[in-house]
Amino acid sequence: MDSRFLQTYVHVVELGSIAQAARHQGLTxxxxxxxxxxxxxxxxxxxxxxxxxxVKPIAAGTRILERARN
Length: 70
Description:
Elements: H1 3-15, H2 18-25, H3 29-43, E1 48-51, E2 54-57, H4 59-69
Antiparallel strand pairs: 1-2
Helix pairs in contact: 1-2, 1-3, 2-3
């Protein structure tokens, strides 16, 4: 698991948007989505629920979020 992917995940959750996280990190939204998919594949579970242009962590994502912040 790449620590940059975890940092991206934290930004996505804190900012509530893949596009905003991409701007914050100087990445494209496609790159952020790829990082999220790779992280979800590593975890073996979905981490966020996408609803339109916003995202929220699901139960598994919340557990990972606390560890990622540390």
